[in-house]
Amino acid sequence: MKNRRSFLKTTGLALAASTLPLPHFAYGNPQMKLGVALLGLGGYATNNLAPALMQTKHIELRGIVTGSPEKIPVWQEKYGIKDQNIYSYETLPEIANNEDIDVVYIVTPTFLHKKYAVMAANAGKHVFCEKPMAMTVSECQEIIDACKKNNVRLAIGYRMQHEQNTQTIINWAEINPYGALQNVHTEAGFRIGSSGGWRLDGAKGGGAIYDMGVYPINAMRYATGLEPISLTASHETQRPNLFLNGAPEITYFDLEFPNGITAKGRVTYADNVNFLKVNCADGNYELAPFQSYNGVSGSTSDGKYLAPCECNQQAIQMDDDALAIMNDKPMIAPGIEGLRDIQIVEAALASGRNNGERIALKQY
Length: 364
Known about the structure:
The chain folds into 2 domains: 2-159, NAD(P)-binding Rossmann-like Domain (Rossmann fold); 160-308 and 335-360, Dihydrodipicolinate Reductase, domain 2 (2-Layer Sandwich), CATH 3.30.360. The chain contains 10 helices and 15 strands. The chain has helices spanning 2-10, 43-52, 72-79, 113-122, 137-149, 164-175, 208-211, 214-224, 313-326, 335-353, and strands spanning 34-39, 59-65, 86-87, 103-106, 126-129, 154-156, 181-189, 230-236, 250-256, 262-268, 273-280, 283-287, 298-300, 305-306, 359-360. It has a 9-stranded mixed β-sheet with strand order 14-13-12-11-7-10-9-8-15. The protein is globular.
């Protein structure tokens, strides 16, 4: 282990750090794949992203960035990762000189997203950043600015926006097949226990509103096709000894949208819930569950059934984002998408601390 740690700290290539290599692939060539390094080898990277990368057509796993040297041989054996494509958090800047790696996917706890997304962008690599994008709007903007400055692309890991039934809901917000939209109701959450780790700590992006809040918030936005103009919120913690640094166990929030449209949401660490309901002038429709890794399905007031897709959401997401890079097309979920949700998370936290104060939302 000591030798492995020493290797991580000393790995470097001969090119000067100030020069950024050209991508090794030819954009638009369907025979080529982007290479991605996963930064952070926790549960989501291990159990979801890495297996999904075995199914992707346009991007493949070529590297890892980890602070846990003991994980390295396991990943190398399972995925055939070269020694020269292994980095620690400290040696991440050296990835600038590695032509095998085109994308760095940030999969750390939320409070570390900004730090490593900016480092990856400064190394000249495209950035995929897991949601929630960052802790604050200002951190989100720093990531966006770093990617723009370094002329690299940025995608936020909103896998649901790549999923077929969710895309139907997004389309219906534009064409209004059930008449003018009136209101939305959505809730998401699960019962967390003492093994929740950083998710129990408000200083690290914990609490239901930080960790799970972007699901119902993003759903409200894509289900209406609009940006909210104000918000009120309240918090509840049924197990105060479980949560640290002001992390709320449950948050209720109400959003106002243009045209008199309203949305009611709840995000919770106290019980299992997972639905999105949209009420319109001439009918309604829903997805339940709306944000599961599989089985997303729905129904409409006139009897339509939105059958679940037998597919890997993460594979579709990463392929879509890779193709956007290769073909110079817009990302489905760019950085501004993550920033807008974090604005609402911040407002919900503030409103709840101030007895449900109504907070006006800036239009980005």
